[in-house]
Bladder cancer-associated protein (Coregonus suidteri), 87 residues
Amino acid sequence: MYCLQWLLPVLLIPKPLNPALWFNHSMFMGFYLLSFLLERKPCTICALVFLAALFLICYSCWGNCFLYHCHDSTLPDSAHDPSIVGT
């Protein structure tokens, strides 16, 4: 279960508020996971636990799934606030 400490924080990285960056974010996350799986070769249990957690997050449409954007979920109110655009 040592390899889960490298996989689970990936699920906590927030999706960018700007929709133009969603593709770049998903490509980065996908390449990171692919390179991690090829280089470190995590155990089967860790890989299954991570894939199950990823499936549940994406299936529930909580908004943090980096594979796609759920059409039913809306952007947070802070996405339309012009005072935080420069931060």
About this structure: The chain has a mean pLDDT of 76. Helices lie at 4-7, 22-40, 44-60. The two ends are 37 Å apart (CA to CA). Residues 6 and 24 are 21 Å apart (CA to CA).
